[in-house]
Write a structure and sequence with these properties.
By secondary structure, the protein is mostly helical. Helices cover about 75% and strands about 0% of the residues. It has one domain: Hypothetical protein MTH393 (Orthogonal Bundle).
Amino acid sequence: MTGYLYEKDLRQMKYTILASTRHDETVRAIARHLGITEAKLRRTMLRRFDMSLLENLESRWEMGQEHADNGDPVAEELGYELFTRFVPLVDTEVMQTIYNETKAMIQEGSATGEALERGKERVREAVLS
C-alpha cells in the first residue's frame, strides 16, 4: 500500500533544496542580514516553508532587496516587506507591531541606532519563534 505524498516527510527534500549552491548562498545572505546563524535559519525555513517557496527563495530574496520598503528607512532597516512579503519569515501583524514600536521610540527621542537595533532584535526573535 502506498501513502499519499502530503503524508510523506519532506524534510530531506527541503534540506536538499536549501543545501544547493545558490540556495545556500541565499540562506547565508539572509542569515547575515538578520544576524542569526545559518543553521537556525535553515531549521526555521524547513519548518515553515513549503517546497514551492523554498524553490523560489533566491529570486524572492533578490526581488525583495530591490523592491521592498523603498522610501522608508526604518522599514528598510527592519526588513518590513522583505521578511513579510518576499521571504515570509515574520507574521505581518508582528512586524507591524515591531515597526510601530521602533518608530515610536525614535519619535520619543531615543537614538535612532539604538531603536533600530532593538527593532532588529525583535525581528530576530520573531523569526526564530
